[in-house]
Design brief:
Blueprint: E1 3-11, H1 14-24, E2 30-38, E3 44-51, H2 56-69, H3 74-107, E4 115-123, H4 127-135, E5 140-144, H5 145-158
Antiparallel strand pairs: 1-4, 1-5, 2-3, 2-4
Helix pairs in contact: 2-3, 3-5
Length: 159
C-alpha cells in the first residue's frame, strides 16, 4: 500500500538541485515537486514546480455538477456544471493558499546559498526516492502528508 508523504532533499548546490528536479519528475507516485532556492542575500525563490493534479478540483466538481444537473434536463446540466466549476475553483484557491503556507514552512530549512527539492509523493516503496537522494549525495527526509498538511493549515490560519 502506498504511503502519502512530503519528502525533502537538501542541496548545497542549487544547480545540482535543478538537475535532481528533472530526475524527480519520473518518480512513481509523484503528485507535486518543487525547488526552493535561497540566494546568498537571503531572497527565497521557487524557480521550478510541477503539480500533476492542478485543476482537478475544478474539473471534477464541474463534472459532478453536470451529472447532477442532467436530472433536470439540458439547462440543469449546464447550470449544474457551472455551479460545480465555481465550487471547484474555490477549492483550488483554498488549496493554493495552503500550498503557499506549506512553502513558507519548508523555507525555514533553506539556508542562504542552498536549495531544497520538495516532493509530494505516494510511495509504494522508499527505494526510488532513496536512490534519487543517493545519486545526488543527499538524504531524503520524510513526513506523513497528513501531518504536514495539518502543520500547513495551522500556519495558514495563523498568518
Amino acid at each position: 500500500m502506498a504511503v502519502h508523504r512530503v519528502v525533502t532533499l537538501a542541496f548545497g548546490d542549487p544547480e545540482q538541485c535543478r538537475v535532481a528536479y528533472a530526475d524527480a519528475l519520473r518518480l512513481p507516485g509523484l503528485r507535486q515537486v518543487a525547488v526552493l532556492e535561497r540566494a546568498t542575500d537571503g531572497t527565497l525563490d521557487v524557480p521550478l514546480g510541477e503539480n500533476t493534479e492542478a485543476g482537478e478540483a475544478t474539473v471534477g466538481a464541474g463534472a459532478v455538477g453536470g451529472l447532477l444537473g442532467l436530472a433536470a434536463g439540458p439547462l440543469g446540466a449546464l447550470l449544474g456544471a457551472t455551479a460545480g466549476a465555481a465550487l471547484g475553483s474555490t477549492l483550488e484557491a483554498q488549496r493554493e493558499g495552503e500550498e503557499y503556507a506549506a512553502m513558507i514552512l519548508l523555507s525555514a530549512d533553506v539556508e542562504d546559498g542552498t536549495s531544497l527539492l520538495v516532493l509530494d509523493v505516494k510511495e509504494a516503496a522508499e527505494g526510488p526516492v532513496d536512490e534519487l537522494a543517493d545519486r545526488y549525495g543527499t538524504v531524503a527526509r520524510r513526513e506523513d502528508a497528513k501531518d504536514f498538511a495539518a502543520r500547513a493549515r495551522t500556519a495558514w490560519k495563523n498568518a
